[in-house]
Amino acid sequence: MVDVLKPDTVEHAVHAIQWAAAEDHLLELYGGGSKRALGRPSQTAYALDLSMLSGIGLYEPEELVMSAAPGTLLAEIQSALADKGQRLAFEPPDLGPLLGRPPGTGTIGGVFSCNLSGPARVVAGAARDHLLGLHAINGRGEAFKTGGRVVKNVTGYDLCKLVTGSFGTLAALTDLTFKVLPAPETTRTLTVEGLEFDRAVGVMTQALNSPHDVSGVAYLPGDPSTTLIRLEGFGPSVQARSDGLTDLLASVGQVRAIEGEEAIEQWRSIRDVGPLSTAGHDVSDTAIWRVSIAVTDAPAFIGSIDAKAWFADWGGGLLWLATSSDGDAGAAAIRSALADNGHATLIRAPEPVRAAQPVFQPQPAPLAALSKRVKESFDPKGILNPGRMYPGI
């Protein structure tokens, strides 16, 4: 039985971590809990629930900046932004349903702790690129802050980028300041059906390298397959770019245009890994992998893997795979086929599989040694989310 500490102020969170450090108690950190099954299983006697540290503390639409406590629901933030015609440009996904949790339970702290980004990653950058500043508590129970409220605010080490994506192993977040951007007036998707994956990769690359300002490119295999290219912005601009892309792709096949709510929902599904989480794949018998790979290597990689289902985002640079959860859930085959050309993360699998197999891409010895030193500098006793990413870290 895990005892849960649930501070309702930053000061209480500081005291909780100071107590854990003094007593050598290990802590699992979480907020909404929608991503607790992402990473190696927790084996701690205590948990630090940060969901009470919630609320939007600052929102200046004219300055395109917002600050919020880590337990603030992502849905609350997106609603506040939508009221002002704005959004988080990196499109953070809602992985709750994929991991067996209800939708809408993810928090902004979880987004930045896991560095989660959606289809717009190819043009807008990752979550860490939008984080301007943060307040946090290290493993000694010391509160610290880094960054600020403007883009050019870093002197010395950029701790925002270091902490983002550390899955709570370095610090407990208490406040986050991040960029927001205007939401597009129009969203249109151009689709081409029936392309083999290797041909589709060439088409997606051509679209990304064109002057038509594409904001998303994905591939859904099937009979027929569908290649999707997204355009966003003001109506006349989207129309002109759509016409240009249609002419560019005329020799590839028939180009169909989708827009409005249908186009938005289509990309929301891709963002949330809907093609795999809604395809009847049960959490208990299906593993989900997220593979980052060089676009040119993606077709050969897919051809060598026995996947139950899959699809591609980021123009082929991001592959989502569903495999059997039996044995090693395909870990040996996936990482052997990947070699040194990318990295694979086991996003979903039964707990015994996540305990036995490396969830994150194994690090070369020099990088692993550096990661360990960074962990020790933030959390010398190793009490924060111990082993969540790698043993000993």
Question: Quick gist of this model?
Answer:
The protein is of the alpha+beta class and 393 residues long. Helix content is 30%, strand content 26%. It contains 13 helices and 18 strands.
Your description of this structure?
The structure is a single chain. The protein has 393 residues and is α+β, with helices and mostly antiparallel strands. The protein has three domains: 1-183 and 363-393, Uridine Diphospho-n-acetylenolpyruvylglucosamine Reductase, domain 3 (2-Layer Sandwich); 186-271, Alpha-Beta Plaits; 274-356. It has 13 helices and 18 strands. It has a five-stranded antiparallel β-sheet. A four-stranded antiparallel β-sheet has the order 12-13-11-14, sandwiched between helices. The longest helix has 14 residues, at 10-23. It starts with a strand and ends in a 15-residue tail after the last helix.
What layout of secondary structure does this protein have?
Blueprint: E1 3-5, H1 10-23, E2 27-30, E3 46-49, E4 56-60, E5 65-68, H2 74-83, E6 86-87, H3 108-114, H4 121-124, E7 131-138, E8 143-147, H5 159-163, E9 171-179, E10 181-182, E11 186-193, H6 197-208, E12 214-220, E13 226-233, H7 235-248, E14 255-259, H8 261-271, H9 274-277, E15 286-293, H10 298-304, E16 309-313, E17 318-324, H11 331-338, E18 342-348, H12 351-356, H13 365-378
Parallel strand pairs: 1-3, 2-3
Antiparallel strand pairs: 4-5, 5-9, 6-10, 7-8, 7-9, 11-13, 11-14, 12-13, 15-17, 15-18, 16-17
